[in-house]
TrEMBL record:
<keyword id="KW-0833">Ubl conjugation pathway</keyword>
<protein>
    <recommendedName>
        <fullName>UBC core domain-containing protein</fullName>
    </recommendedName>
</protein>
<dbReference type="GO" id="GO:0005634">
    <property type="term" value="C:nucleus"/>
</dbReference>
<dbReference type="InterPro" id="IPR000608">
    <property type="entry name" value="UBC"/>
</dbReference>
<dbReference type="GO" id="GO:0070534">
    <property type="term" value="P:protein K63-linked ubiquitination"/>
</dbReference>
<feature type="domain" description="UBC core">
    <location>
        <begin position="48"/>
        <end position="195"/>
    </location>
</feature>
<dbReference type="Pfam" id="PF00179">
    <property type="entry name" value="UQ_con"/>
</dbReference>
<dbReference type="GO" id="GO:0006301">
    <property type="term" value="P:DNA damage tolerance"/>
</dbReference>
<feature type="region of interest" description="Disordered">
    <location>
        <begin position="166"/>
        <end position="195"/>
    </location>
</feature>
<dbReference type="InterPro" id="IPR016135">
    <property type="entry name" value="UBQ-conjugating_enzyme/RWD"/>
</dbReference>
<feature type="compositionally biased region" description="Low complexity">
    <location>
        <begin position="180"/>
        <end position="195"/>
    </location>
</feature>
<dbReference type="GO" id="GO:0031371">
    <property type="term" value="C:ubiquitin conjugating enzyme complex"/>
</dbReference>
Length: 195
């Protein structure tokens, strides 16, 4: 625990905590509750990007479904625009991905959620929609990215990637050794292994 004189006996608030506090100071709670994702089109309020990302962050912190898909903000505490996110997918049963843990990087640019996030696997994977040298999920090969809609979320995207792993054309593809990663330099095709 980090000790601070400004926060005696506890660690200072995280970036997400500070953003949540600021959000509640700006938007009255009843209005905030009415600005939910996926509401009916006739009474839809266009939720600003940062509010939407805060809602996704809260949902990601609570855990999703059976726990085989998760996401949260990257560890970069200086990311006040909430651009960098990490995701994890545990491979589905009865396929070549079973039990494997895949790490991903998601980048929500200034146009998110109107435009999809950029997605890149950190863990090596052989999947039809993933570039074999960089780990980048190719938007034209994944229907969720190709046909992106504002109401889609990072949770939806990760769940669809998991379903793609179990699809007939991907389920039996030979996979790289576990514990290998795409190079952090997206222009390089080198492989690193964890120690």
């Amino acid at each position: 625990m980090v000790k601070s004189t400004a926060w005696p006996g506890r660690s200072p608030p995280t970036l997400a905590d500070r953003a949540r506090i600021a959000l509640h100071c700006i938007v009255p709670v009843p209005l905030l509750r009415s600005m939910t994702m996926g509401s009916a089109a006739s009474d839809t309020v266009v939720v600003p990007r940062n509010f939407r990302l805060l809602e996704e962050l809260e949902r990601g912190e609570k855990g999703i479904g059976d726990g085989s898909v998760s996401y949260g903000m990257d560890d970069d505490g200086d990311d006040i625009f909430m651009r960098s996110w990490t995701g994890t997918i545990i491979g589905p049963l009865n396929c070549a991905h079973e039990g494997r843990i895949y790490q991903l990087k998601l980048v929500c640019d200034k146009d998110y959620p109107d435009k999809p996030p950029a997605v890149r696997f950190h863990s090596r994977i052989n999947l039809a929609c993933v570039h074999p040298d960089t780990g980048v999920v190719e938007a034209d090969k994944l229907p969720t990215l190709r046909e992106w809609r504002r109401e889609y979320t990072m949770e939806h995207l990760l769940t669809q990637l998991k379903k793609e792993m179990a699809a007939p054309h991907n389920r039996r593809l030979p996979q790289p050794p576990e514990g290998t990663f795409f190079s952090s330099d997206s222009n390089s095709s080198s492989t690193t292994t964890s120690s």
